[in-house]
Amino acid sequence: MDAVFVGIDVSKDWLDVHVLPSGESFRVDNDGPGMERLIGRIAAGRPERIALEATGGLEMPGVAQLSAAGLPVVVVNPAQVRSFAGALGKRAKTDPLDAAVIAAFAAAIRPELRPLPDAETRLLADLVARRRQIVAMIVAEENRARAATERQTHKSIKRLLAALRRELETIDGDLDGHIRKSPIWLVRQNLLTSVPGVGATTARTLLAELPELGTLDRRQIASLAGLAPFTRQSGKWRGKNVIGGGRSSGRAALFLAAPLAPPPNPPPQGLPDRPPPPRHNPPLKAFRDRLVAAGKPRIVAIVATMRKLLIILNAMIRDQKPWLTT
């Protein structure tokens, strides 16, 4: 019997579904009853993969229900799906066509199934993402304040900045409470922040954006964060190795923790009785300096340091051992 693959294109109001190899296509409402009809219709075929594109969070309720029903569901990268569609010569784009392309992508690539984040991980990720949005708004308003010339404009910006900073304090308090409430999160944060240069904000971002920390090997975790360089060459031509893809938020957090990166904004106050971490990590700084002394460009050395730091953090979570100074 041929393996069955299902592609689902998610929109706010409905789900377009395509099943391979039968070619069956149908649409259901994107609500509870619609998901029940979908599960009842595809479960009997025992699909090998059910793939949905990441769609800004719209896909998560469906993913959760499909997973709860014991079905093999995976969220795929929309950029990879569009590249796959281009390779197939499919330029048209409609919801039913997108579902068919997603199903074909799942059948050809067979993306790896990974455990879905639990409710606590999703809440942590939402809080971290909201904090990132508020910080971005604060930076934007501060830039506007520097450019503003009218007194009334300054007063408006000042009021908004005060409100945003109060909201940032509230979010930081919510994050502290969430971490304290879970012994697992508390242990993991303490492990990560034992590394010089890794503060509470960096640790929380990594725990939220890379919940697989400690469960993957060094190559897999580097690839997941988009820190695994890939080679570009053709014949005698040799291009520069580059990085890309992966989870950009986790990668940005590692950049801020890497030695000689631009210093971040002061992190929120950590858990009680924990002194603030040192700004830089001397062994990692020495590693970066050796690469620069060997002729590596500065940004290449920083990326290599970020990758080394991530591999260390991954091993610490895996082995449940804090940073040890020598």
Question: Can you describe what's shown?
Answer:
The protein has 326 residues and is α/β, with parallel strands linked by helices. The protein has two domains: 5-109, ATPase, nucleotide binding domain (Nucleotidyltransferase, domain 5); 120-265 and 279-319, no CATH class. 55% of the residues lie in helices and 10% in strands. It has twelve helices and seven strands. It has helices at 32-43, 60-68, 78-87, 95-109, 119-147, 151-181, 183-193, 200-209, 218-224, 248-257, 282-293, 298-319, and strands at residues 5-10, 14-20, 24-29, 49-53, 73-76, 233-234, 237-238. The chain has a five-stranded mixed sheet. Strand 1 and strand 2 form a beta hairpin. Helix 8 packs antiparallel against helix 10. The longest helix has 31 residues, at 151-181. The radius of gyration is 23 Å and the shape is globular. The chain starts with a strand and ends in a 7-residue tail after the last helix.
Q: Would you count the extended β strands for me?
A: 7
Instruction: Give me the oligomer status.
Output: single chain
Q: What best-fitting shape do the alpha-carbon axes yield?
A: globular
**Beta-strand percent range:** 5-15%
Protein structure class: alpha/beta
Order of helices and strands: EEEHEHEHHHHHHHEEHHH
Domain unit count: 2
N→C terminal distance: 59 Å
Q: Which percent range fits the helix content? A: 40-55%
Q: How many strands, which pairing sense, and closed or not: the largest β-sheet?
A: 5 strands, mixed
pLDDT averaged residue by residue: 83
Tally of contiguous helical segments: 12
Gyration radius, rounded = 23 Å
Low-confidence stretches: 260-265, 267-278
| Strands side by side in the biggest sheet | 3-2-1-4-5
